[in-house]
Amino acid sequence: MDLLMTEEEVRFRNEVRTFLDTHLDEGLKRAERLNPSFLADPAVGLKWQAKLNDKGWVAPSWPRQYGGTGWTLAERYIFDQECERAGEPHFRGASIKMIAPVIMRYGNEAQKSFYLPRILNGEDVWAQGYSEPGSGSDLASLKTRAVLDGDQYIVNGSKIWSTLAHHATRMFALVRTADTGKKQEGITFILIDLKSPGVTIRPIRSICGTHEFNQVFFDDVKVPVSDRIGEEGEGWDIAKYLLEFERGGAFAGGMLRAMLARLQRLASEPLPGGRKMIDDPLFMARFAEIATDVDANDMLELSAMSKVQAGGNPGSVPSSTMKIERSRIRQSIAELAASILGTDALRWEEHRPLHELPEGSEIDEECKVASAVYFNSRSQSIFGGSNEIQLEIIAKTLLR
Amino acid sequence: MDLNYSDEQLLLKESAERFLKERYDFEKRNKIIASETGVDAAIWSEMADLGWLALPFAEENGGLGGGPVEISLTMEAVGWALVVEPYLSSVILAGGLVEKLGSEEQRAEILGGLIAGTSRPALAHTERQTGFDLDNIAATATKSVDGYTISGEKPLVPGGSFADVFLVSATLDGTVKLFVVPADSAGLTSTQVKLVDGSRASDLVLDNVPVLASALLGAAADTLAEIEAAYDRANAALASEAVGIMDALMDATVAYTKERVQFGKPLAAFQALQHRMAEMAVKCQEARGSALLATLSVDAPRPMRIRGVSGARAKIGKVSRSVAQEAIQLHGAMGFSEEMPIGAWFRRLYAIENTFGTTADHLKRYGEIIRDPAMLSGSLLREPV
Ligand SMILES: Cc1cc2nc3c(=O)[nH]c(=O)nc-3n(C[C@H](O)[C@H](O)[C@H](O)COP(=O)(O)OP(=O)(O)OC[C@H]3O[C@@H](n4cnc5c(N)ncnc54)[C@H](O)[C@@H]3O)c2cc1C
After folding, report:
1. Are strands B200-212 and B188-194 parallel, antiparallel or unpaired?
2. Would you call A382 an interface residue with chain B, using a CB distance cutoff of 8 Å?
3. Which residue of A35, B105, B107, B118 shows the fewest CB atoms closer than 10 Å?
4. What is the whole-number distance in angstroms between the Cα of residue A130 and the centre of ligand 1?
């Protein structure tokens, strides 16, 4: 056992670093620093995505035949670490990491050849249509209905909390096509063009002051049967496959480390009274504790990765553990960062996106976004399967 | 020792809650914070009519002679309803200082206007570097022919954007003094700032602002000591406000989980969540105890006052954050959206943690006090005075 990179991997890392040095410009990095949300503002995200696409690096996890990189897991890990270190806008979300693997696995040839290139070049941005007002953790209770009428489905109902749906061109959605049998069995997976007649999008503002998610209403929306993924009633299995990517598939170690490095920079700056937080033992104890959490979480990730590389499966306990811990670590970093602001924590900048505001010093800007980041961090333990649901999964495995 | 509320106190609590329930629901409050001024003049004059603005002042000053307990009950209701009007900053902080330091004329004028609802004074003391070292003041006052000239910067003056008159601290011959500065004084600029909890403050800049000799408040008094005592009264009030918010979050969470059905059952039927709410209740009870100690310490000798007040702010800072985070978590995405008051309570608690000393400031201040073994080992019960 060891933690050594191969010579080849070191070369690869240096190549990635050089690319990021030259292509990830200050404007993009600043926009990301000033983004309180999980995903970048699409205008920013798509700009960065285009640059990655030119290099052929936009979808590191895809097989080469679909336009991916064909990298090993270790290379993908290194790439992610470097992107985070450099401060890339986070945008490779629902489109690249969620719906694409589903289309590759369950889609037919026509769907693959139409949708996958449009994801790579940014022509399509996808929203995830799972949750409904009455169905959150209990996803299988969903009610949005799709009725087959000739060669199309007529969809009626409503999805909620759909992140970035107001910027998205399409939504992948779970809909009910049957009421018989177990509730999981009547669920079908379809792709909805959000420009279709009958689609209405209502913005919802979150407690960090940003409009990031929405409620989406479907009123007799027509979806061609050719936009169904898999068979009717197969939606639940497909959804579970997708959730694996949402929860466990992402490398987070790099992101947490990058957040911690930002916090360290903030804490190294003299406060108005001349004091620095890194000289405060109480602060440093909390900071160091979080750093050990990051190391432990990163090791879990590397171990899971090694298992997969050797052809095994990491299992559900490590991936639920990582999801829980990742959210807690993000929340504690954000909380500690906000605690540095002192009285300035009271100031609230309403304008969104923050990067449209005139430029200030890096530290002033960190202060401007820190409260919003703290508020936003509370969602980490709710979305993508809440921490309570992850604990249920772990408990079930333990007590089986 | 008696820790029971009197019948009059319970009546006051009930009337405050009823008034805010009828006149200050969440929708109404959202309209107020979205408005140009961020304050509702009608509500303020109703508060005057109800006697809220007179509550803490002595009867000889036109007040109702209410003590810390009456203030704490009012502040719990203020917290619950998320009142953004400057009750704390104008009445308790600035009004309290005028009562302690003002001459008869100053009291008659400023307190008179405050109690009638026609004046809203604000204290402009702390500066960027002050933190909770209340003597760290850079603004200066110099003697002039007929009074003083004041210069300095006072950021984030609470209630400042609603104020017609400021109590500005500045060093005069090396000692901190307070001056009454009308908001329309020449050389004074006040910029409105929107705060994280929806309320407003102002950034004040004083550039050679001339004031008359009669503007000096409490010429002979130990002004710093009075300012510190006023902040302690305000901090005890904040502790009670936080308790009101925590109760509101607790009640809202219990009600929501009883309604919200997932997996065929109300969320409240899951034992995992029942225990989480029970833990929240434990924290609410603890906070209540701390806030009561703070309330009953504001008139005690300084070390005991600090133990009670800063101890409560430190303790409540921690437990209130945890209760607020849990409330959001148990509401799921609903708690993360602005549609429910959960997020607004959460943000107000966050603001409280950074008002008149941060949670860490108060923990340190408390830590200094309990270095004295007598203070640490002494009972909470006190000798009669
Ligand atoms: C920022 C954000 C972005 C989101 N983006 C999307 C998106 O793009 N698309 C989409 O479809 N959805 C999205 N969601 C919704 C998300 O998936 C749901 O919030 C999540 O599944 C929880 O559902 P809920 O909010 O309805 O909470 P509920 O299911 O009502 O749960 C409320 C609380 O009860 C707990 N709980 C529920 N059941 C149990 C149980 N049996 N035992 C113990 N505890 C339980 C939960 O953990 C939670 O703490 C987003 C949510 C957020 C906050």
Report:
1. antiparallel
2. yes
3. B105
4. 10
